[in-house]
Design brief:
The structure is a single chain. This protein is of the alpha+beta class and 116 residues long. A three-stranded mixed beta sheet has the order 1-2-3, sandwiched between helices. Strand 2 and strand 3 form a beta hairpin. It is globular. The N and C termini lie far apart (32 Å). The model has no long low-confidence stretch (mean pLDDT 93).
Length: 116
C-alpha cells in the first residue's frame, strides 16, 4: 500500500466531505516511467480529461470495470500522488467508433485521433 497516496486520499476526503469508504484506486497512467510522468503532467495542466483501457484487459485480469463516481489517486512514476480524479462517464466502444473528440480528451500530441 502506498502510504503517501493513502494519506493524500484521506486529506482529500476531509477537505471535500467525501466518505473515506468511497471506492478508490491508486494508479499511474502509462506503461513506462517517462509516459507516467508525461501523462500526470497533462492531468495537472487540465489537458488530459479522459482515459481509455482495453476492455479485454479487465476480463483477463478479472478486474471490475470503472463505474461512474469512482475516485482514483493518480501518482507519478515515483509513486508520489499528483491529484485525484473521479469517473464521470464510462463508455464501452469498439475502436472504429472512437471519435476525434474522444481522442482529444486523452490530451496527447496534437489531440487528433490519428496521433492517439
Amino acid at each position: 500500500m502506498n502510504l503517501e497516496a493513502q494519506k493524500y486520499w484521506e486529506s482529500f476526503c476531509l477537505k471535500n466531505g467525501v466518505s473515506q469508504a468511497s471506492l478508490y484506486e491508486i494508479f499511474a497512467f502509462g506503461n513506462t516511467k517517462e509516459h507516467a510522468d508525461e501523462l500526470a503532467d497533462l492531468v495537472l495542466e487540465g489537458k488530459k480529461t479522459g482515459t481509455s483501457s482495453g476492455y479485454e484487459l479487465y476480463q483477463m485480469d478479472n478486474e471490475p470495470l470503472p463505474k461512474v463516481g469512482d475516485y482514483s489517486v493518480v501518482v507519478n512514476s515515483s509513486k508520489v500522488p499528483i491529484g485525484i480524479i473521479q469517473t464521470v462517464e464510462v463508455m464501452i466502444l469498439p475502436w472504429k467508433e472512437i471519435t476525434e473528440e474522444l481522442a482529444a480528451t486523452e490530451g496527447e500530441g496534437d489531440l487528433s485521433l490519428m496521433y492517439w
